[in-house]
Amino acid sequence: MPAKYHIPVRRVPPRLSALAKTTIIDWNEGCLRCQRCVKEVCPVDAYKKRDFDRKQFVDTLDEMCRSCYRCVQGCPKELVFKAMNPQYRQLGDDYYTPEIIGTTWYQAETGKIPVSGAGYGGVFAGEGFDSLWTDMSEIVRPTRDGIHGREYISTAIDLGRKPMFLVFDESGNLLFEPPSLMELPLPVVLAEPPLGANPPRMRQILAAAAQTLGTVALMARDAVSGDLTDAAHFLVPQFPAGQLNLDDPLLSKVRAIELTDHPEVISRMEAVKQRYPRLIVWIKVDGDLQAPDRVAALAAAGAGVIRLVATEQARGMRDAGEVHLKDLIRRTHLKLVEHQMRDAVTLLASGGIALAEHVAKAIICGLDGIIVDIPLLLALECRLCRNCQHSQGDTCPIEMDKLPVKRGAQRLVNLVGAWNNQLLEILGAMGMREVRRLRGEVGRAMFKEDLDKEIFAPLFARPEGASRRVGE
CB atoms < 10 A from the CB of 426, how many? Predict the structure, then answer.
């Protein structure tokens, strides 16, 4: 049995006070001067430790408060009460909501799974990934639970082209050289976010985190500076169409590269393989309505790793703008199954993977692994204010240029560690011992759209020959 994969999480306190969801309003006027003030019995001593963050102009009391409401309910004059923090509600956007940002901050700081202590507080149905429910029936069988050391659960995946069949000679030797494979200990690839105030610092942090996690980091070839070449083993440089130079010295140092899809991409891939036989070539395909057919064509032409790209909001590109990423994944996966090519290629996707649960759900829809980008920026305390997209980056509220590389890398490791633990929880609850089995396992999941069509639609269907009511 291989050694159990371990992610070295370690608490990394935030450099800035995190914006709390609620704020405490504490009035002194009218105080009765009780013999024992309710503030003195705070279970976390928030009132004793409170301070004022002059840099952000916030009271640190809100950050320490655990919302037990003991002080609110105990004050006889009702001088203490809680209200929603307007700054918190302004975080992020419609997709990367304040709740997602707050959850990401917590995981990046502690490396732990967020537990509210009051049950699940999220939605039970919605669109996108929220419309998918996973089967947790095996959670009642602790002998199948590998989370606590009784059994080993593997989260490793293989990236690269797999042969559809094997041919041996009379001596039992393979008659062809098998393609190169890259094994990652977890189904998560890091990628440079599409925004950020200090891209060079972010790339250094990405490279350091990828080394610690044993995975790889995607970044543009032009962005791979000299100080990153020592980490080349953990980098996957991206080459836009027409910009690949076969004499590039970096090609002999990395394990994989990514080419942008274009009409000549297969010939360029073959040229790379001929010059660098052990190099794995990824192909990036835009997630439009033609993507499933294009991915199938690339797979038939010999592609080994294909990345499906969606928008930041997990939507398709161009004519697929109304299609969610999970549906694009399912269509692409099923197209490969239809062409009997699914086991030959590795399918990845990026865009809108915002939470740990999205990892498992995307794999259920048909992926081998996911590529994460914007959550990595959030892990570094980003407020997603997008000032960096509208200026030269000198107005970044978190001062990204002052973030030490080691500190930032550990926060990324913590985030991925928390995500990996949640994946283990899901696999254990589903009775699975390896993440490879989860790929395309839609039989262990329910989709709201299917339930609406199969169960609820017949309930409200009009009987044949029934007359319409007045006003309908």
Answer: 23
> What is the separation, in whole angstroms, between the first and last Cα of the chain?
65
Q: How many CB atoms lie within 10 A of CB 185?
A: 17
CA angle 190-309-98, nearest 5°?
65
User: Alpha carbon of 245 to those of 237, 241, 256, 434: distances in Å?
Assistant: 12, 11, 15, 39
Collect all residues with Cβ–Cβ distance below 8 Å to 294 and sequence separation of at least 6: 261, 285
Domain 157-451 has CATH 3.20.20.70: yes
- Of the candidates 178, 384, 159, 131, which has an alpha carbon nearest to the alpha carbon of residue 283? 159
Q: How confident is the model at residue 145 (pLDDT cuts 50, 70, 90)?
A: very low
Strands (E), 7-73: 22-26, 52-53, 58-59
According to DSSP, residue 468 is labeled P
Q: How far apart are CA 160 and CA 306, in angstroms?
A: 9
The string of pLDDT tens digits covering residues 287-342 is: 999 999 999 999 999 999 999 999 999 999 999 999 999 999 999 999 999 999 99
Strand partners, 372: 190
Q: Which residues contact 188 (CB under 8 A, 6 or more apart)?
A: 213, 215, 359, 369, 370, 371, 372, 416, 419, 420
Give ranges for CATH 3.30.70 in the chain: 22-90
Q: Where are the beta strands (DSSP E) in 185-234?
A: 188-191, 217-220
d(CA 81, CA 67): 11
The architecture that CATH gives domain 22-90 is 2-Layer Sandwich (3.30)
3-state secondary structure at position 370? strand
CATH 3.20.20.70-classified regions of the chain: 157-451
